[in-house]
Design brief:
The protein is an alpha/beta fold. The chain has nine helices and seven strands, in the order E-H-H-E-H-E-H-E-H-E-H-E-H-H-E-H. It has a single domain, classed as Spore Coat Polysaccharide Biosynthesis Protein SpsA, Chain A, CATH 3.90.550.10. The radius of gyration is 17 Å and the shape is globular.
Length: about 250
């Protein structure tokens, strides 16, 4: 069996609508055209709709796709499960809704050849269709995380399109504190803390990070609460700063 170059980890929580609209079919159709070895791991995050049944059926009918079923623990635990189950030299985690089409991975590969350890997608100048409120929140969030955590130089921490060398990804995930395995969540909670903590740890470890502009299309997957989401984001940033002072990420 040939070594796998790319493992694609796709978290899934109550994604029945996107699956029925063909999101996974788009992934499969793209991968049929590539010339490198790959695998797709879809991790169900304890979905309460028809997601689990649909992804099981899809994996049976499509070579190279596999499914892992998790209790509902949120994105961090879901991604971690997928990465640990992966076999590729490189790992990409990508949102199931394909707001950033999988084909954008072609923009990422060259940077690994240049010695980078983590390569992330950026929507900084391509937030097509995003409401004004979301764009304002994103701008304010960028200023806060740069000031409190020193994550200057990274414009978009929240794009759901991140790739890394597998061994380095494991090092990062082993140090997660805010939303790692074992943390219980409720509903379709989506927190900014996971992506920020992931990148903050990567910088603490001295890994080389590259941000690459990718195609992105706005997909409304949940209702945004400006007050609740902004407060949660701020508390996550502060918690990461406190963890750093305590030496949690050593």
């Amino acid at each position: 069996m040939k070594p796998i170059l790319l493992s694609i980890v796709i978290p899934a929580f109550n994604e029945e609508t996107n699956i029925r609209l063909g999101a996974l079919d788009k992934v499969s159709h793209y991968l049929e055209s590539v010339h490198y070895t790959w695998e797709v791991i879809v991790v169900d995050d304890g979905s309460t709709d028809g997601t689990a049944q649909l992804i099981d059926e899809f994996s049976r009918q499509n070579h190279g796709f596999s499914v892992v079923h998790n209790p509902h623990q949120g994105k961090a635990a879901t991604v971690t499960t997928g990465v640990r189950a992966s076999r590729g030299e490189l790992v990409l985690f990508s949102d199931l809704d394909q707001a950033t089409p999988l084909s954008q991975v072609e923009k990422i590969f060259p940077w690994f050849e240049r010695g980078f350890d983590v390569v992330i997608g950026s929507r900084s100048s391509r937030r097509e269709g995003a409401p004004l409120l979301r764009r304002i929140m994103a701008r304010g969030f960028m200023i806060l995380r740069s000031f409190i955590l020193g994550l200057s130089g990274i414009n978009d921490t929240q794009c759901g399109f991140k790739a890394f060398k597998r061994e380095q990804g494991i090092r990062i995930l082993d140090r997660l504190s805010l939303y790692g395995s074992g943390h219980e969540v409720s509903g379709s909670m989506v927190t900014a803390g996971f992506d920020i903590e992931f990148l903050y740890i990567a910088k603490r470890l001295g890994l080389k990070i590259r941000e690459v502009s990718v195609e992105w299309h706005y997909v409304e997957t949940r209702r945004v609460n400006p007050i609740v989401d902004s407060w949660q984001g701020l508390t996550d940033i502060v918690a990461i700063r406190i963890n750093a002072w305590k030496g949690v990420y050593q």
